[in-house]
Specification:
globular, 2 strands, two-stranded antiparallel sheet, mainly alpha
C-alpha cells in the first residue's frame, strides 16, 4: 500500500515563510504545525488544510503527494 507524503516544508521554503509565521497565520500551535511539516501525523482537518493553503497561497496538491511505492510504517509486518 502506498503512502501520503507531506510537502509542507517545501511550500514554506518556496514562500520563504517560517514555522512561527505560518503558525500565527493559520492559528495552529508550532508543535502541531511541526508535526504536520515532518509528516508525524495520521490525519489533518480540512479546516486546517484550508487555512494552510490560504496562508501559503497554494492548492492541497502542492502540500500532499501520494507515493504508491512507499510503505507506511503501520503497514510493515512484525
Amino acid at each position: 500500500m502506498g503512502k501520503i507524503i507531506l510537502r509542507l516544508d517545501r511550500m514554506m521554503a518556496d514562500r520563504k515563510m517560517s514555522l512561527n509565521e505560518l503558525s500565527e497565520r493559520v492559528g495552529v500551535t508550532n508543535v502541531n504545525l511541526s508535526k504536520i511539516k515532518t509528516g508525524k501525523i495520521s490525519a489533518i482537518r480540512f479546516s486546517t488544510l484550508e487555512s494552510i493553503c490560504e496562508a501559503l497561497n497554494c492548492q492541497p496538491g502542492d502540500i500532499l503527494e501520494y507515493d504508491p511505492t512507499a510503505v507506511r510504517e503501520d503497514d510493515s509486518e512484525g
